[in-house]
Amino acid sequence: MNYEPVIGLEVHVELNTKSKMFCRCSADYFGKEPNTHTCPVCLGLPGALPYINKAAIEDCIKIGLALNCTVSERSSFERKNYFYPDLPKGYQISQYRWPLCVGGRLQVTGDRGQDVTIRINRAHQEEDTGKLTHSEGVTLIDFNRSGVPLVEIVTEPDFTDTAQVRDYAKKLQQLFRYLGVSNADMERGDMRLEANVSVRPVGQKELPNYRVELKNINSFRFMVAAIEHEIKRQIAALEKGEKLSQETRGWNEDKKSTFLQRSKEEAHDYRYFPEPDLPELKVDRLQVTVDSIKKSMPELPWDKSKRFVEELKLTEAQAKMLSETKELANFFEEAVKAGNQQEVNAITVANYIINQKVDIKTVKPSEVIEKIKSKSAGLISDARELEKLAQEAIEENPQMVEAYKKGKVTVIQAMIGSVMKKTGGKVNPNKIREILEEKLR
Ligand code: ADP
Ligand code: MG
Ligand code: ZN
Q1: Atom of ligand 1 nearest to the CA of 10
Q2: Number of folded domains that form the chain
Q3: Which residue, of 358, 378, 398, is where some domain finishes?
Q4: Which residues surround ligand 1 with Cβ inside 6 Å?
Q5: Which residue range(s) make up the domain with 423?
Q6: Minimal CB count within 10 Å: which of 27, 134, 180, 366?
Q7: Residue 391 belongs to a domain with what CATH number?
Q8: In a shared domain, residues 361 and 231
């Protein structure tokens, strides 16, 4: 029997607001002396009352809007009850039945280059817990992180391969940085991934009646490895006639395998109930409108990339590279503007920035145009000579040619780069590209 994976993703992102979610303590806790950013609210002392951080709510709305969610006019907070030493209140304030943002979607690319739409169930607001450090037989608790705003984004189980999952996670990271709501650094734990994995016979419509939640994933690479391993483990178990059950597993990077952490609790184990100390969250009471939040948002990376292809005629690979960060995209657009006045077109600017690996921190956009202009003075224009250079690039780089033929079209940049190097930059990269593409067709 053939099986297909069913994967859903939960992403937590820590917001970089000035203060914590429900008190005025500074949320900038990283590297600070333990237990110095605390107060009765985030220490969970009895009788302390929480109040809502508006800046965090606005960030959550931005994330929701970017993911095509509906922003709920009214939402509310609930207590998620469980006992663990990093959670002094004995419950986490979260959203459950009435989340702030619901029902979005994001387009991702799969392992065969196919477009897939991932439905987003919700993007809700919650708070972080304290941090435990286990060392030499004791456990230390630091409450500086307790109460730092977190947004959780939950997808429907729509992923069917790990390329889609990776693309989704990368896009979210890029989005958080574009929106300026988080550094989204995985190693520091600003952004955390949990994958839910099950498998079903190909053709089966219903979801499997179990799911395995993978935790402790702190890089994109580990996430892919953990999911791939889990898919294989589950298929092998089913083929042996075993029954799989709802559980939480961790990823062991040394052993390259997943291990059982606990059999999974269900939502009812948390005894969610409305947070009695917080009022219902009404967006129209925020003193800013959803519309004004929307207007304050930058152009999103995927919209930028699309515009670079449509308006500036860049290749998709170039557009993607140049919209990687907001800073690089702005730099490129500034350079294009400067180039417009001097008859240097956008494609030339894009090629130059990519091929020369221009350092946007030390070079000004206008300098890029100057350099392009001075270079274009001594360019090789003889068609036969260009042909020869392209042919040599092909013969000298068999691995790149192979990669290109397998669909990794971006290697053509490196081939163009090799010609540029050989000639001391005396060729027009667009011309060489045309010839190379022709020859490799
Ligand atoms: P919990 O609070 O238990 O983590 P959530 O509702 O937050 O539950 O998250 C459930 C996640 O599991 C979602 O991302 C959802 O898409 C995913 N999921 C649900 N059913 C399956 C399944 N059969 N296989 C894989 N993932 C699933
Ligand atoms: Mg969850
Ligand atoms: Zn506090």
Answers
A1: 14
A2: 3
A3: 378
A4: 6-10, 154-157, 196-198, 207-208, 211, 267
A5: 383-439
A6: 134
A7: 1.10.10
A8: no
Q: What b-and-e string marks burial along 79-93, b requiring 16 or more CB atoms within 10 Å of the CB?
A: bbeeeeebbbbebbb
| Interval between CA 190 and ligand 3 midpoint (Å) | 19
Residue ending a domain, choose from 243, 268, 295: 295
Q: Whose CA is nearest to atom 8 of ligand 1?
A: 267
pLDDT in single tens digits along all 441 residues of the chain: 899 999 999 999 999 999 999 999 999 999 999 999 999 999 999 999 999 999 999 999 999 999 999 999 999 999 999 999 999 999 999 999 999 999 999 999 999 999 999 999 999 999 999 999 998 899 999 999 999 999 999 999 999 999 999 999 999 999 999 999 999 999 999 999 999 999 999 999 999 999 999 988 889 999 999 999 999 999 999 999 999 989 999 998 889 898 988 886 676 789 999 999 999 999 988 888 999 999 999 999 999 999 999 999 999 999 999 999 999 999 999 999 999 888 889 999 999 999 989 999 999 999 899 888 877 767 776 678 889 999 999 999 999 999 998 888 889 988 998 898 888 878 888 888 989 999 988
Instruction: Determine the distance separating the centroid of ligand 1 and the alpha carbon of 120, expressed in angstroms.
Output: 11
Question: Do 325 and 206 belong to one domain?
Answer: no
Clarify whether residues 256 and 191 are in a common domain: yes
> Do residue 184 and residue 259 come from a single domain?
yes
Question: For the whole model, what pTM was predicted?
Answer: 0.84
- State whether 170 and 76 are in the same domain: yes
One domain, residues 254 and 108: yes
> Do 36 and 184 belong to one domain?
yes
